[in-house]
Amino acid sequence: xxxxxxxxxxxxxxxxxxxxxxxxxxxxxxxxxxxxxxxxxxxxxxxxxxxxxxxxxxxxxxxxxxxxxxxxxxxxxxxxxxxxxxxxxxxxxxxxxxxxxxxxxxxxxxxxxxxxxxxxxxxxxxxxxxxxxxxxxxxxxxxxxxxxxxxxxxxxxxxxxxxxxxxxxxxxxxxxxxxxxxxxxxxxxxxxxxxxxxxxxxxxxxxxxxxxxxxxxxxxxxxxxxxxxxxxxxxxxxxxxxxxxxxxxxxxxxxxxxxxxxxxxxxxxxxxxxxxxxxxxxxxxxxxxxxxxxxxxx
Length: 298
Fold this sequence. Notes:
The protein is α+β, with helices and mostly antiparallel strands.
């Protein structure tokens, strides 16, 4: 098979016009492990760590529904010295907590289990992750690496390459943590502007996949308000009520500034036809998408 007839899920999604909004996976806790060697297709699960250490980290993360991602710096050559690890917590109060450590042997990673039981410190800068996990999906490497390179040049202390974050067809995918904000369909030209705006407290709808503390339908409702009223800070909107009636939904969202306002966003769910949603997915699968039918102040 040549590159001209090879299937690329991100190209297919663009041609279909797949919607980004509402596609961020749920999550509030993340474990990051710097790993400079080759990444297995299944990430952390495929690492050849000491079995007892690997089991402990996995069980501690599973207990709090934490996502484990492998990371590495974008710069070449890779930095020397101990690897780093982090446990990041998102709190709905707006507090972003982080705890960082280092490791040189497998046994050092046991500290992650302890860190998952503590909230971590405040006041540290955010982490910007770019999925470049080509062994999981080729689109993540082809589209992610140019984005990682340009963002790493702009913010070398914030940006890391990472393993699979979900939504291969939306590559290049960028996740800002512990904010829990997913962006998709970025390229080298758009990525710097999107992250620059995010770091300035202005989240835009154009490349937004969603906030990880919200359900998909809620993510779509917030994105609709950002699209209608313009960029806003991460916690400018709060979902206060969600009601379902069959395929129809009503999501009430409160805007806190410049003056308190509530909106009811109504949406209708539908299931798409079966598509190949990843480059390697052998069986086409449908996806659930939400169409906004109205936005009205309450």
